[in-house]
Design brief:
The complex is a heterotrimer. By secondary structure, chain A is mainly α. In chain A, 48% of the residues lie in helices and 12% in strands. In chain A, helix 3 runs antiparallel to helix 4, helix 4 packs antiparallel against helix 16 and helix 5 packs antiparallel against helix 6. Chain A starts with 19 loop residues before the first strand and ends with a helix. Chain B has 3 domains: 141 residues, Ubiquitin-like (UB roll); 137 residues, 2-Layer Sandwich (Alpha-Beta Plaits); 233 residues, Rossmann fold (3-Layer(aba) Sandwich), CATH 3.40.50. The N and C termini of chain B lie far apart (87 Å). In chain B, a hairpin with a 2-residue loop joins strand 1 and strand 2. The radius of gyration of chain B is 30 Å and the shape is elongated. The chains are: A mainly alpha, B alpha/beta, C alpha/beta. Chains B and C meet through loops of B and loops of C.
C-alpha cells in the first residue's frame, strides 16, 4: 500500500481508465415497456449511450396484411395502450380518408370525447410514472385513481377498460349509452380535483424541481430534425399540434389552447402535459354540449358498416351484407394514403397501401414515440445516471407503440 | 360520234367500323355478336345471371338490361311508367326509355350503349336484384355457393337495400336429389334455365325443364328419369346460385379457403383444362372446376373428369417398395442398384416402359436415361385400358399423355405392353425400368410376367399391377403435386365439328401447375429417374424442373405437335 | 398551397422526378434513386419549401405486383415543413426481384431523425442505406435471419433462440402453416417457401 501522503505529480497515480458499461433494462422498473439502455460510464457521467428497443415488437404490420381492414382495430388498440381510443380513431380516419366518406357529426363528437378522455389518461400516467420513479409515489397513486374514474366511463361505453377495439370504419361499434354524458360530467370534476392535488404535492418540491429543471434539454431545431412531434416538440417552443394546424373531425369548432414550452427540458414537458389535461377537459365539455342526444353514429353505407344482428338472422339482404363485409372485408380503393392525428405522444400516422381487395397490402404505423426515443441518447449523454430516469419518464415512450 | 362520259358516281362511303361504344369506350365486335358478348370479349362485365358464353341466349333474368341511345334522327323508345313521388306521397306519370337485354340485342356499327353510366340501368338492376331476393331463403351460412355466388356479389354492387315485401316468402322443396350426383334446392333457384340449356345443348339430353309459372317456378326432371347423363356436374357448375349442388362437394369445404391451381384433367386423352381446388391448410384436393380453353374443352368437363380429382389422394403409392415391403427411397435405390447389376453387359436386355399417365418431363427423363446412358432402345408404353367415349368431350383413350409419351421415345416408337409380356416370357429381357403402373392388358397376366424377373424397377404415383409386380417400386408425385406438361390426344370423333356446330378439340400441350405438397415420400418422377441414374453411376445432374425443360428443347406448347394423334382401337371394355 | 411543392420539385429536378400524383390529397413524387439525397437536401434547404420536419420513412414490398423488370421495393419518406405546414411524400423504387442488392442513399446527413427509421427499414425489409452511421437491426434480435416484412417471408415462421419443446409448434397454430383469412388473394407465394417449382 503506497503512502498517500507523499507528494505525487499529477497523472502519476494509476487509476483504472476503461469506461464502465452499465446495462439499464430491459427488465427495469424505470424502463417503461421494456427498453434497454447500454451506458458507457465514466464515474457517474454517461459518456455514450445506446438505446435498444424492440423487446415488445409483435409484428403488427405483418399481421395486418393477413386479415381484413376491420381486423386491424385490435392491433391499433395495442399500439399506445395507455390511450387506445386515439389509435382507434386515427386508424378509422385513415380508412375513411381512403374511402372518401365522413362519419355523421354525432359520431365525430363522440370520437373526440372518447379520444380526449384517453389523452387525459395518457398524460396522467406519464406524469405519475415519472414522479414515482423519482421517489414520489403518492402523485402516481392519485393519478391512477383518477384514471380509474375514466376507465369506468370506458367500461360503460365500450365494455373494456383498456383495449376497447371500439372504433370501426364508418363509425363506432356501438352507439353511446344513455348515461354517457352524465357519467362524464360527474366524473371529470373529480378527475380534475385529484390531478390538482397530485400536482400540489409535487410542483413545489425542491428535489423534484432540481431533478427535472434544466435536465434533458433539447433545442427546437434538433427536435424538428429528429422528427419529434407532440408534447415533446411543443415543450421546445414549436407550436405544432395536429388538432390546430390540420384540424380533423370537429376540432376546428372547439375553443382550446395548446400549451407551448420554452426550454425543452423535463420540466417543460411535464408542465405541458399537465396543461394539456386541462385543455382536454375543456374540449370534452364543449363536445358534450355540441353532441346531439340522438341520431346515427354509423354512416349509412352497406358496403362499410355491418347491419343489425336481428336483420342478419332474418333477411337475406342483411345476411349477404354481413357475409361480404366479414368474409371479404371492406373494399378500400387501390392506392396509398397517409393519415395523421394527434395521438397521446404526437403525430400518429398511418400510411396505408391498398390493392383494392378487402385485405390491406401494407399498413405502416408511424409511431410518435419512435423518433422521440431516438433522441434519448442525445439528451442523456454527458449527464449522470440518475438523470436518465426523469428524462426517459418525461418522453413518455410506450413500448407497444415504439416497437409495434 | 360524241361519246358521253358516264356520270361520275361519287365514291362509296367507307363502311362504318365494326365498333360499338359502351359507356363511352369503343370496343370492336364480330358479325352476329350480341352486346354482352362483345363486352365479354373486351373485358367489360355487364352483370348477368342467365347468359353463358357457351350456351344459347335465354334472356329471362333481365339483369343485363342496358340503355341504348337511339340512332341519330330517331326518337328514343320510351315507356309510360308511374314513379313514386316522395313529396306528393303519390304516384306520378313519367316516361322512361325502354331498356334492352344486352344478351339478346345484336351489335350494329356505331351503337351507343349505356351500362354503368345510366341511372335507369342502375335502377333496373336494383329492381331485378330485389325481385330475385324476394323469396330467397336465408341460407348463406349453409349454402355451398357462398363466396362464389352472384346474388351476393350483385347485391352489394347494385342494390344495397332491403326488400319491400312484407309477406311470408314462398316455400318450395329443398334438397331434392335429382340424380346420383346433383341435389336441387328449389327455394334458392332463380329459374335462369342455365341448367336446362346445359342438359339440352351440351349433354344433348334435354332431361330438365321448368314447371309452374311465376314465383312458383322450379326446375324439374322429366318424369320417369333421373339426371344421369355424363355432364350433370356441368349443371351445377353453371348454376349461378346454390340451387344445384354436387353431392360430392356438398358441405365439404368453404370456397374462400380453397385455392385453384391451373391443372389439366387426367381422366382421359381430351386433356380438358381445369382448376384443381385444394385447401392448402390440410393439403387436400376438394374438387375440379372447368377452366376456359376454347381450343380443347371450351367451358366444360365431363362428370368422369370432374370426379377424377380424387386420384390425387386415392390409391397412391406413398412409400418405396422393395419386394412388396415398405422401404425408404434410399434403401430402394440401393436394392435397385443390386438388382440391375449386369445391365451394362447387354443393353438389349433392358426394356424401358414409358407411361401415358405421367407428364412429358417424367417420360423425357426416363427416355434420356435409356437412350443416353443405358443404351437401351426397346420402348414400351404403359396405358390405362380404354373406356367409354362420346362425341362431346369424352375420349375412349383414358390416358392424359399418350401422345406425349409417344413423342418422348423419339424415333424408337414405343411398342404396346403386350409385346413386352411376350418378350419377357421368351426371355428377351432381363431388366425392366418402368414409369407408371397401369397397363392395358390383363392385370393378372402382366403381374405374372413381371414377377418372373428380378430386375424390375417401377416409378409410379399410384398402385397398380406394375407397381405391385415390380421388385422395386419408387413413389412418384401425382399430377397434382408437381408441375408438368401433358399433350392431349382427343378421339377422331371429338376433333371434328361438334353436333352443335362448334369447332372440335385441337391438339395441344398444356402445362399443369402444382397444387399440393407431395404425399408420403413422393418425389417428382423425373427427379427419381435422375437419382436412380446417379445411383447407377451415371451423371444425370438435373436439380430443378427448369433444367429438365431446358433439356427438352423448345416449348412444346408453341411448336406444332411432332406426333400425329395416336389412334387407339375403339374397343371399349366398359 | 402544397401544389407548389410538386411544381418546384419538377422545375428543379426535371427528369429525376419520374411521376407525381396527389391521390387522396397527399402530394407524392416518385424520385429516381440516384437523386434521392439531392432531392432531400433541396426539400430541406430551399427557403420556399423548408421541410425541416422529418416525419416517416418506410419500405413497401411490391413482390409480383409490378412487371417483371420493375424494381420490387419502394422506399417512402414523408416530410413536413413547420413554417409552411405543407407536406410531401417522396418515394423511390429500388431492388430486384430476388431482393439481393437493395440499396439507396441514407438521409441521415440531411435529417438526424432518419437514423432509426432507416434502421427499422433495414431490419424489417432488408434495404441497405449507404452512408448510414450505424446500420444494424433495431427491432429484431441480432441473430435473426432474413427480412420479416417482405412478402416472401411467411408470417408463421419462427426463429426461436431456444428451440421449442417437441410438439409445441403443432399446438401453436389452429391451422397449418398457411392459416388465414385472405379471401381470394394469395398473401404470399407459398410455393417459393418450399423451394423451387
Amino acid at each position: 500500500m503506497e503512502p498517500l501522503d507523499q507528494d505525487l505529480a499529477e497523472g502519476e497515480l494509476e487509476l483504472p481508465s476503461e469506461p464502465m458499461l452499465l446495462n439499464m433494462g430491459p427488465s427495469h422498473p424505470a424502463m417503461h415497456g421494456t427498453v434497454r439502455i447500454v451506458l458507457e460510464l465514466s464515474g457517474e457521467t454517461i459518456m455514450k449511450s445506446d438505446v435498444q428497443i424492440g423487446y415488445l415488437h409483435r409484428g403488427f404490420e405483418k399481421m395486418c396484411e393477413r386479415g381484413t381492414w376491420t381486423q386491424i382495430f385490435p392491433y391499433a388498440d395495442r399500439l399506445n395502450y395507455v390511450s387506445p381510443m386515439l389509435n382507434n380513431v386515427g386508424f378509422a380516419l385513415a380508412c375513411e380518408k381512403m374511402l372518401g366518406v365522413t362519419v355523421p357529426e354525432r359520431c365525430q363528437h363522440y370520437r373526440v370525447v372518447l379520444g380526449e378522455l384517453a389523452r387525459i389518461c395518457d398524460h396522467m400516467i406519464c406524469s405519475g410514472a415519472m414522479c414515482m420513479e423519482l421517489g414520489a409515489f403518492t402523485p402516481f397513486l392519485y393519478f391512477a385513481r383518477a384514471r380509474e374514474i375514466i376507465w369506468d366511463i370506458f367500461e360503460e361505453e365500450t365494455g373494456a377498460r383498456v383495449t376497447h377495439s371500439f372504433g370501426r370504419v364508418g363509425g363506432m361499434a356501438k352507439p353511446p349509452t344513455a348515461d354517457f354524458k352524465a357519467m362524464i360530467r360527474a366524473g371529470l370534476p373529480r378527475v380534475m380535483q385529484m390531478v390538482g392535488e397530485g400536482e400540489k404535492l409535487i410542483l413545489k418540491n425542491r428535489i423534484f424541481l432540481d431533478r427535472v429543471e434544466g435536465v434533458g434539454k433539447i433545442s427546437k431545431e434538433d427536435a424538428l430534425a429528429l422528427g419529434w412531434t407532440g408534447v415533446c416538440l411543443r415543450s421546445t417552443g414549436a407550436a405544432y399540434d395536429v388538432r390546430k394546424t390540420h384540424p380533423y373531425m370537429t376540432y376546428d369548432r372547439y375553443d382550446f389552447d395548446v400549451p407551448v414550452g420554452t426550454q425543452g427540458d423535463n420540466y417543460d414537458r411535464f408542465m405541458c402535459r399537465q396543461d394539456e389535461i386541462r385543455q382536454s377537459i375543456r374540449i370534452i365539455d364543449q363536445a358534450l354540449e355540441m353532441m346531439a342526444d340522438s341520431g346515427p353514429i354509423n354512416i349509412d353505407d352497406p358496403r362499410i358498416v355491418l347491419p343489425p344482428k336481428e336483420d342478419v338472422y332474418t333477411t337475406i339482404e342483411a345476411t349477404i351484407q354481413h357475409f361480404k363485409i366479414v368474409m371479404e372485408g371492406i373494399k378500400i380503393p387501390a392506392g396509398e394514403c397517409y393519415s395523421y392525428t394527434e395521438g397521446g405522444n404526437g403525430e400518429l400516422g398511418f400510411y396505408l397501401v391498398s390493392d383494392g381487395s378487402g385485405t390491406p397490402y401494407r399498413v405502416r404505423i408511424r409511431p410518435p414515440c419512435f423518433p422521440i426515443v431516438q433522441g434519448l441518447s442525445q439528451l442523456i449523454n454527458g449527464r449522470m445516471i440518475a438523470d436518465v430516469v426523469p428524462t426517459f419518464g418525461s418522453l413518455n415512450m410506450i413500448g407497444g407503440e415504439c416497437d409495434h | 360520234m360524241a361519246t358521253t362520259t358516264p356520270a361520275e358516281t361519287p365514291p362509296a362511303p367507307p363502311p362504318p367500323p365494326n365498333t360499338i361504344k359502351i359507356d363511352g369506350r369503343e370496343i370492336p365486335f364480330k358479325k352476329g355478336d350480341t352486346i354482352i358478348r362483345a363486352a365479354h370479349d373486351a373485358g367489360i362485365d355487364i352483370p348477368h345471371y342467365c347468359w353463358h358464353p357457351g350456351l344459347t341466349v335465354a334472356a329471362n333474368c333481365r339483369m343485363c338490361l342496358v340503355e341504348i341511345l337511339p340512332p341519330p334522327g330517331r326518337p328514343a323508345m320510351e315507356l309510360d311508367i308511374l314513379r313514386w313521388d316522395v313529396e306528393k306521397n303519390d304516384y306520378v306519370s313519367a316516361r322512361k326509355p325502354k331498356l334492352l337485354p344486352a344478351c339478346q340485342q345484336g351489335c350494329s356499327p356505331g351503337m351507343e350503349v349505356l351500362s354503368d353510366s345510366s341511372d335507369n340501368v342502375a335502377e333496373a338492376r336494383s329492381a331485378v336484384q330485389e325481385f330475385l331476393l324476394l323469396n330467397h331463403p336465408v341460407d348463406c351460412p349453409i349454402c355451398d355457393q357462398a363466396g362464389e355466388c352472384r346474388l351476393q356479389d350483385y347485391w352489394l354492387e347494385h342494390q344495397r337495400k332491403g326488400k319491400r315485401m312484407q309477406q311470408e316468402v314462398v316455400h318450395k322443396p329443398k334438397a331434392v336429389p335429382f340424380g346420383p350426383t346433383i341435389v336441387y334446392d328449389a327455394e334458392r333457384c332463380i329459374v335462369c334455365t342455365r341448367c336446362v340449356r346445359v342438359s339440352a345443348e351440351l349433354a344433348l339430353d334435354p332431361v330438365l325443364s321448368i314447371r309452374e309459372r311465376g314465383n312458383l317456378g322450379e326446375v324439374t326432371v322429366s318424369p320417369g328419369r333421373e339426371l344421369d347423363h355424363d355432364y350433370t356436374l356441368m349443371t351445377e357448375h353453371v348454376c349461378p346460385v346454390g340451387a344445384l349442388t354436387s353431392s360430392d362437394f356438398r358441405f365439404k369445404a368453404r370456397v374462400w379457403f380453397l385455392r385453384g391451381a391451373r391443372s389439366v384433367c387426367q381422366g382421359c386423352a381430351t386433356g380438358c383444362s381445369s382448376f384443381l381446388d385444394y385447401d392448402p391448410r390440410t393439403n387436400t384436393a376438394h374438387r375440379y372446376r372447368p377452366r376456359e380453353n376454347l381450343a380443347v374443352n371450351k367451358y366444360w368437363m365431363c362428370d368422369e373428369g370432374m370426379l377424377s380429382y380424387k386420384r390425387a389422394h386415392e390409391g397412391r403409392l406413398t412409400t418405396a417398395l422393395v419386394g412388396r415391403e415398405d422401404a425408404t427411397i434410399d434403401e430402394a435405390l440401393q436394392a435397385a442398384k443390386e438388382q440391375l447389376k449386369g445391365h451394362k453387359n447387354d443393353p438389349s436386355k433392358i426394356a424401358i416402359v414409358l407411361s401415358a399417365q405421367h407428364s412429358n418431363e417424367d417420360n423425357f427423363a426416363l427416355a434420356t436415361l435409356a437412350k443416353m446412358y443405358l443404351g437401351a432402345g426397346d420402348f414400351f408404353l404403359a396405358k390405362r385400358k380404354p373406356g367409354r367415349g362420346d362425341k362431346i368431350l369424352m375420349s375412349q383413350d383414358k390416358n392424359p399423355n399418350t401422345r406425349g409419351a409417344t413423342e418422348a421415345a423419339g424415333s424408337s416408337t414405343p411398342k404396346p405392353f403386350a409385346d413386352l409380356i411376350k418378350g419377357i416370357n421368351a426371355g428377351t429381357y432381363s431388366f425392366v425400368i418402368a414409369l407408371g403402373s397401369e397397363v392395358d392388358v390383363d392385370d393378372a397376366e402382366a403381374q405374372a410376367a413381371l414377377s418372373k424377373l428380378k430386375g424390375v424397377v417401377t416409378i409410379a404415383s399410384h398402385v397398380g399391377p406394375m407397381a405391385m409386380a415390380a421388385h422395386i417400386a419408387l413413389p412418384a408425385c401425382a399430377w397434382s403435386e408437381a408441375d408438368g406438361s401433358y399433350s392431349n390426344n382427343p378421339d377422331e370423333a371429338l376433333r371434328t365439328k361438334r353436333p352443335n356446330g362448334e369447332p372440335g378439340a385441337q391438339l395441344q400441350t398444356q402445362r399443369s401447375e402444382r397444387a399440393l405438397t407431395p404425399q408420403g415420400d413422393a418425389v417428382p418422377a423425373w427427379k427419381l429417374v435422375a437419382t436412380l441414374a446417379r445411383t447407377l453411376g451415371y451423371a444425370m445432374d438435373w436439380k430443378k424442373l427448369a433444367d429438365v425443360r431446358a433439356a427438352m428443347g423448345p416449348d412444346p406448347r408453341t411448336r406444332a405437335p411432332s406426333v400425329e394423334a395416336v389412334a387407339i382401337k375403339p374397343e371399349a371394355t366398359v | 398551397m402544397s401544389k407548389k411543392v410538386l411544381d418546384l420539385l419538377q422545375e428543379k429536378f426535371g427528369a429525376a422526378i419520374l411521376a407525381t400524383h396527389a391521390q387522396f390529397g397527399d402530394d407524392t413524387a416518385v424520385i429516381e434513386p440516384g437523386s434521392w439525397r439531392a432531392v432531400a437536401l433541396f426539400l430541406r434547404d430551399d427557403p420556399r419549401l423548408g421541410m425541416n420536419m422529418f416525419t416517416d420513412l418506410c419500405g413497401v414490398d411490391y413482390l409480383n405486383q409490378r412487371g417483371e423488370d420493375e424494381p420490387r421495393f419502394e422506399v417512402v419518406c414523408h416530410l413536413r415543413s413547420l413554417q409552411y405546414a405543407h407536406r410531401i411524400r417522396i418515394k423511390s423504387r429500388i431492388g430486384d426481384a430476388e431482393g439481393e442488392t437493395v440499396e439507396i442513399d441514407s438521409l441521415v446527413p440531411v435529417w438526424k431523425g432518419a437514423d432509426w427509421f432507416e434502421r427499422e427499414t433495414f431490419d424489417l425489409m432488408g434495404i441497405t442505406f449507404k452512408g448510414h452511421p450505424d446500420l444494424r437491426r433495431i427491432l429484431m434480435y441480432p441473430e435473426f435471419k432474413g427480412a420479416p416484412l417482405r412478402k416472401d417471408y411467411p408470417a408463421s415462421k419462427t426463429q426461436p433462440l431456444i428451440p421449442y419443446r417437441e410438439g409445441t409448434l403443432d399446438k401453436l397454430f389452429p391451422f397449418g402453416p398457411d392459416e388465414g383469412m385472405a379471401f381470394g388473394r394469395q398473401t404470399h407465394d407459398y410455393r417459393n417457401d418450399r423451394g423451387e417449382s
